[in-house]
Design a protein that fits this description.
Blueprint lengths: L1 H24 L1 H38 L12 H7 L3 E7 L5 E3 L8 H14 L4 E7 H4 L1 H7 L2 H9 L2 H22 L1 H13 L29 E7 H7 L2 E8 L2 E9 L5 E6 L1 H11 L8 E6 L25 E4 L8 E6 L4 H71 L6 H32 L8 E4 H18 L3 E6 L5 E4 L1 H17 L6 E9 L2 E8 L6 H4 L23 H11 L3 E6 L5 E8 L4
Parallel strand pairs: 12-14
Antiparallel strand pairs: 1-2, 1-7, 3-4, 5-6, 6-7, 8-10, 9-10, 11-13, 14-15, 15-17, 16-17
The protein binds adenosine-5'-diphosphate (ADP).
């Protein structure tokens, strides 16, 4: 039964607990992953906003840029500068890419001078500069070819026209997202780029989230932008206008340019302050209880930062939790998110773990408790069922023994096999005694159900307990002696009156006497002593049997309780005798006590109050 409990309840319980414990241990990673997902979505959103703003800036500049200036003048420049806050150093190139404005013949401001120093060689086509492109778009075809078949089939099923129109944009998106999701593709593409000498841009930051896009622990993440060296002529051949980012001495300058119908190129440096302001205005709430979100410039410095709380040390802005590059127009700029409290993940994880453990313990206790209770009930039921079976077997056996004796003596008398009158008389006495034993047994069973239902009634009258005991004993003596017993009776030669139901008391004494007989082994001596103690009559029934082991002594008066209750027990019994006897005596305001006897054996003492004179 215990094994069953362990198998059915405890083993699955322990198994579940182990599973839960494993889940708890991973809680920190789960929380980090979830947080990373949320913050990455936010960062990506901001990056899209900034990218859109850059396109807007380009359009604004296109709209405001003067056109059809001819070679003659840059006279409109002051007006342009005044009209658009985005314009910093305007320039004009001839169709042959000679720099017409600013011109060394003019009075040059410091800004114009440094503009010429940095950009003259480039704008006049003498040097090439690195131009950045999203690696996923450069290797679009390779990435798309790796996509699962179903997607390719889907594309193939579309009308050819449709494909032309949609697939460009769709494929760009597909290539980018596939590149972001699949680490093996990423590795291969970077490898391919490296072989072709297209080095990825070096990033300003190194995000710390472990489970991010690149899972290798804290390995510096590669930029998604790779560069290709192009001259201004080559760039200008690909478009009519644009913005060229230039990293000079680690500083980023954005050059806007547009060609007019006559082949002149007008352009300007985009004002740094204005650009910063516009980007800052796009940022959502920088500071939330969970994260700090900001844009980092080419030096890895945040455009906006929350004022640090007193005592809070300056953060390492180059170690964000997650970060994302913005666009090829703003190389090395990133949108980055930092955890407000870096300990938040572990504290959340330990809080969750605490709750989970509490739940597991509650679950465990209730399952084990409930299981234990069910088991206990089951065990009680089984005990009861076993007791019933033993009881029926024992009752039948006990009834059979006296019946067999009675039948044997009756047959002997009928066959007249015993001519001796004295012996004939003894047989009859034995038969009477056996009948009494039978009656007592049946009475025990009957009384049990009566006492159970509180229906037992007594006919009380004053009796002399000495006589009653002696008569009872005499009626049994012949049987005892026949079975090899020595029976001694002693009393204080004067009557002891008690108010009692004669039959009930007789039944009690018979029960005790019968036990003394049943549980005696080699030493077959029974003593009965009737005495007075203050206002009580005492009847001691003493045997030299095996006695009762101390651990059972307290329980023998319980219903059905037997020291050896197995079906194979040498001495059979119903386990009812003592419990009924005690009930009867207690109903007479008396008591039955058990004492172990020196030199072996038992004493059962019946104590009854004497009747008042
Ligand atoms: P039973 O029908 O089994 O005798 P009882 O209620 O009369 O039932 O006794 C309960 C148990 O007490 C017995 O099974 C026996 O183990 C023990 N017992 C009773 N009387 C004696 C005795 N005189 N000597 C030893 N054991 C006894």
């Amino acid at each position: 039964m215990g094994l069953l409990f362990v198998l059915v309840v405890m083993v699955p319980c322990v198994f579940l607990a182990l599973l839960a414990a494993r889940a708890i241990n991973r809680e920190e990673a789960y929380i980090e992953k979830r947080l990373e997902g949320t913050l990455l979505a936010e960062v990506t959103h901001v990056a899209t906003l900034v990218d859109a703003e850059l396109k807007k800036i380009l359009e604004e500049l296109l709209a405001s840029a003067p056109s059809g200036l001819g070679e003659s003048s840059g006279d409109f420049f002051p007006e342009w500068e005044a009209a658009s806050s985005l314009v910093s150093v305007p320039f004009l190139l001839s169709p042959e890419n000679e720099i017409l404005r600013p011109n060394y013949n003019q009075d040059l401001s410091d800004e114009e001078l440094s503009f010429l120093n940095w950009n003259r060689a480039f704008l006049t086509g003498q040097v090439s500069i690195p131009v950045y492109k999203n690696i996923a778009l450069v290797y679009k075809d390779e990435i798309i070819n790796r996509l699962d078949k179903s997607y390719n089939e889907q594309i193939a099923n579309q009308e050819a026209m449709d494909r032309q129109a949609i697939s460009q944009e769709v494929m760009n998106q597909q290539a980018i997202s596939q590149f972001e999701q699949d680490e093996s593709i990423r590795k291969k593409v970077y490898q391919q780029a490296k072989e072709k000498g297209q080095a990825p841009l070096s990033r300003t930051v190194n995000p710390s989230a472990k489970v991010g896009l690149v899972s290798a622990e804290s390995k510096k993440q590669e930029s998604v932008f790779i560069s290709e060296k192009l001259t201004f002529n080559e760039i200008a051949a690909q478009a009519e206008h644009g913005v060229i980012p230039r990293l000079i001495d680690d500083r980023l300058i954005l050059l806007f340019w547009a060609r007019d119908e006559e082949g002149n190129t007008v352009g300007c440096v985009i004002d740094e302050e204005e650009l910063h302001e516009r980007i800052i205005s796009l940022l959502p709430n920088v500071y939330s209880p969970v994260r700090i979100l900001t844009v980092l410039d080419e030096h890895g410095r945040p455009l906006v930062t929350p004022t640090p709380a007193p005592g809070e040390e300056e953060r390492d802005w180059r170690r964000p939790f997650v970060a994302r590059e913005i666009s090829e127009t703003l190389p090395r700029w990133e949108v980055a998110a930092y955890l407000t409290d870096p300990g938040i993940i572990s504290s959340r994880a330990s809080f969750m773990a605490l709750i989970m453990w509490a739940l597991i313990v509650i679950l465990f206790v209730s399952i084990a408790g409930g299981g234990g209770l069910v088991l206990k009930t089951l065990q009680n039921e089984m005990n009861l069922a076993r007791q019933k079976t033993t009881f029926v077997a024992n009752v039948s056996h006990e009834l059979k023994t006296p019946l067999t004796s009675i039948r044997m003596f009756a047959e002997m008398l009928r066959e007249k096999r015993q001519p001796d009158k004295k012996k004939q008389r003894r047989y009859l006495d034995l038969m009477v005694s056996e009948t009494e034993r039978l009656t007592r047994l049946i009475n025990n069973v009957l009384d049990f159900s009566q006492l159970e239902q509180d229906r037992k009634s007594y006919t009380l009258k004053v009796v002399d307990i000495v006589r009653l005991t002696e008569n009872m004993l005499e009626s049994q003596r012949v049987r005892f002696e026949h079975n090899g017993f020595e029976v001694h009776f002693s009393c204080d030669d004067r009557p002891l009156k008690v108010k009692a139901d004669e039959d009930a008391i007789k039944q009690t004494l018979l029960n005790l006497l019968s036990n003394a007989e049943k549980y005696s082994e080699a030493r077959k001596v029974i003593e009965i002593v009737v005495s007075q103690e203050e206002n009580h009559a005492l009847i001691d029934i003493k045997d030299r049997g095996k006695g009762i082991p101390p651990k059972h002594a307290g329980k023998i008066f319980k219903e059905f309780y037997r020291v050896d209750d197995s079906l194979t027990a040498r001495v059979r019994g119903t386990g009812l005798g003592l419990s009924i006897s005690l009930r009867i005596i207690r109903d007479h305001n008396g008591e039955i006590l058990y004492f172990p006897r020196d030199e072996g054996g038992s004493v059962f003492q019946v104590k009854l109050p004497l009747a008042e004179e």
